[in-house]
Amino acid sequence: MRKNIVAGNWKMNKNLQEGIALAKELNEALTADKPNCDVVICTPFIHLASVTPIVDSAIIGVGAENCADKVSGAYTGEVSAEMVASTGAQYVILGHSERRSYYGETVEILEEKVKLALANNLTPIFCIGEVLEERKAEKQNEVVAAQLASVFTLSAEDFGKIILAYEPVWAIGTGLTATPEQAQDIHAYIRSLIAEKYGQEVADNCSILYGGSCKPSNAKELFAKPDVDGGLIGGAALKVADFKGIIDAFK
Ligand code: PGA
Asked: Measuring from atom 3 of ligand 1, which residue has the nearest CA?
């Protein structure tokens, strides 16, 4: 069964002490008022081992924002999927547009990362989405179809373990949000591609999150669309009131 999920992406924000404080505050808020959806927080690597023991794992999942495309060895500065999993984290964001554009992550690199994440029992939150010029040229469908190549080599069983996040790059951190109709159209298209590749049941069971300037004021309308199964939240995940406001869109 498809799940509704609200996942936070802290990006490169919060030092360790601030991150711990944010996780504690969120945990308190969600234990007092239980969410009606799965909640995940994806934090910088250095926070993971400290944050996993302080959140109630029945309410909040924890994830990394990236992992290496190699198993282990002489890759200075990299963090492997196995290392992420050893902190108690259960998720990892892969293919975020910031990783693709600033760090040159390609379809092939991301395919390796997804496989290593799955091999270490991490749930990838795999991001796809077009840039503004591509949207203006009405190429968004082509772009997401090409990006899905990284995960379309998986078996149906493994594909069933991943979460997708559609994030139009022009909406990330810009205050511009896709309209609920724009989100629904492309989410339905993404689901149709999954159905073509893996069959309708796998497609129906896949959670597809929307990301890009999602906030308490627009979350309800976006999540009300039949193919939008929640959100991947950047800026608004850094304040408990905002993040909880988005989580409460499922109430
Ligand atoms: P934003 O970021 O909510 O700040 O737009 C979303 C994301 O990049 O995951």
From this structure: 234
The residue to which tokens 């198993």 are assigned: 71
Taking CA atoms only, the protein residue closest to ligand 1 atom 2 is 234
Q: What is the mean pLDDT of each run of 10 residues along the chain (251 residues)?
A: 96 98 98 98 98 98 98 98 98 98 98 98 98 95 98 98 97 90 98 98 98 96 98 98 98 95
Q: Which atom of ligand 1 is nearest to the CA of 233?
A: 3
Provide Rg for the chain, Cα atoms.
Answer: 17
pLDDT at 139: 97
Q: Is 232 exposed, middle or buried (0-12, 13-18, 19+ CB in 10 A)?
A: buried
| Residue 167 among the catalytic residues | yes
Q: Is this prediction's pTM over 0.85? A: yes
Residue 48: phi, psi to the nearest 5? -55, -50
State which ligand 1 atom lies nearest to the alpha carbon of 213.
5
> Cα–Cα distances in Å, from 114 out to 69, 86, 142, 148, 229?
8, 17, 21, 12, 21
For residue 227, the 8-state DSSP code is T
> Three-class SS of residue 43?
strand
**Token pair for 13:** 């924000």
**Is any atom of ligand 1 closer than 6 Å to the C-beta of 127?**
no
Closest listed residue to residue 97, CA positions, set 197, 203, 9 = 9
Ligand 1 atom nearest 232 alpha carbon: 9
Nearest to 170 by CA among 127, 222, 135, 210: 135
Out of 98, 111, 167, 187, the active site residue is 167
